[in-house]
Specification:
single chain; 120 residues; Rossmann fold; globular
Length: 120
């Protein structure tokens, strides 16, 4: 909900799909005709944590090309290092203040909006 509010307030034209956990996200990604340009991933999810999801994603030849940015409250250095080892595109700590959160999301979405991605 926070992400949707932020996106609409920034007036980007991004379409968001939301998954409540990693298993649901993998089900959404089964539709290869409608893959996302970017995945924003929290490490703290029910059923399957973000690192488990990231590992599955980056080991799948059909999905590993999708840039994935971690948005989390975890400043654990081991989490950060593991995510980069697996192949994450970015690791961003969620700030407490809403304004700071909006600024970080705006930066991420702006970058990935202008980044040249190879279309598969």
């Amino acid at each position: 909900m926070k992400m949707k509010r932020t996106n609409s307030s920034l007036e980007f034209k991004h379409h968001f799909s939301e998954a409540k956990n990693g298993e649901e996200a993998l089900e959404i990604l089964e539709d290869k005709s409608n893959l996302p340009d970017l995945i924003l991933l929290d490490l703290n999810m029910p059923k399957m944590n973000g690192i488990e999801f990231l590992s599955i994603l980056k080991n799948n030849d059909d999905l590993k090309h999708i840039p994935t940015v971690i948005l989390t409250t975890s400043d654990n250095q081991k989490d950060l290092e593991e995510c980069y080892r697996i192949g994450v595109s970015g690791y961003i700590l969620k700030p407490l203040k809403h304004e700071d959160y909006v600024n970080k999301i705006e930066t991420v979405l702006s970058y990935w909006s202008i980044n040249e991605l190879k279309k598969y």
